[in-house]
Amino acid sequence: MLKVDGIEKSYKQGGLFSKQKQQVLKKVAFECQQGECLGIIGESGSGKSTLGRLILGIEKPDRGRILFEGKNVNNRCVRMGSISAVFQNYTSSINPFLTVEEAIMEPLKAQKKVKADMQSKVETLLHQVGLNPSYRLKYPHELSGGEAQRVCIARAISTEPRCIVFDEAISSLDVSVQIQVLRLLEELKQFYQMSYVFITHDIQAAAYICDRVLIFRDGQIEEMVPIKQLKDVQSDYARKLLTYLITFQGEDQG
Ligand SMILES: Nc1ncnc2c1ncn2[C@@H]1O[C@H](COP(=O)(O)OP(=O)(O)OP(=O)(O)O)[C@@H](O)[C@H]1O
């Protein structure tokens, strides 16, 4: 369903007149099947978010292509309503001047799919993400972090997409809220039969929700493993990275 085919991406480095470039993604190729959750794990700066932006069509690759159900995501019509995103910064993801209802309706408005029974659609979505219908009229500053992220999730699923890219989407939440949100994401994935691309540093979250993980190193795929075989990764780098992340997170959580 999602095919990333030999993509490369560089960014200009240095000042205005500099000709130096930093290659951030190098011939990245993989596929994500329908209903699959594919984790992307890698060190900071390894290019995970860049890859996420390319899948979302926010930026274009220099070389290679990303196909969604056989069509290039460069085409807005291919991705609109079909591929959504949930980012880490839930507070800045919602316009502070919009009510929860307006924020959730934004993608539907962009698709010109606003119908007369919008209130009940918003209430259904709120219910699906575990929020009371009364949240419809609240503003972002009246929400806790977990509630705001649920609103972002409601917005992401409003168009019933077939794929969602999560970029560190649960990283800023308290551990207990992270677990609730992960459960919610699992339920929604089953319900809508969606695919997830789950970018994370959190190995435990990946182990909970992902079917496979792709270990990213310096803009390239170091290794791709089914989650059940995570402890049997082959490369030295992947083993070291996973050990580091497990130790680091263990310390972080007490
Ligand atoms: N728009 C941009 N212009 C220039 N350089 C960029 C741009 N976006 C990303 N980079 C650079 O590309 C590299 C990869 O960044 P990216 O955010 O994709 O990494 P990441 O793996 O998601 O890191 P993190 O886990 O810290 O979010 C970094 O060196 C970053 O500075």
- Structural class, by secondary structure, is alpha/beta
Could you state the oligomeric state of the chains shown?
A: single chain
Bound molecules: adenosine-5'-triphosphate
Helix content: 25-40%
State which percent range the strand residues make up. Answer: 25-35%
What form results from the Cα inertia axes? Answer: globular
- What's the count of strands? 10
CATH topology heading of the largest domain: Rossmann fold
Radius of gyration: 19 Å
Number of contiguous helices: 9
Strand order of the largest sheet: 6-7-8-3-9-10
CATH superfamily of the largest domain: P-loop containing nucleotide triphosphate hydrolases
Count structural domains. 2
Low-confidence parts? none
Largest sheet: 6 strands, mixed
The average pLDDT value, as a whole number, equals 91
Separation, N- and C-terminal Cα atoms: 40 Å
**CATH class identity of the largest domain:** Alpha Beta
Level-2 CATH architecture of the largest domain:
3-Layer(aba) Sandwich
Pfam family, one: ABC_tran
GO molecular function: ATP binding; ATP hydrolysis activity
Domain ABC transporter: 2-243
Protein name: Peptide ABC transporter ATP-binding protein
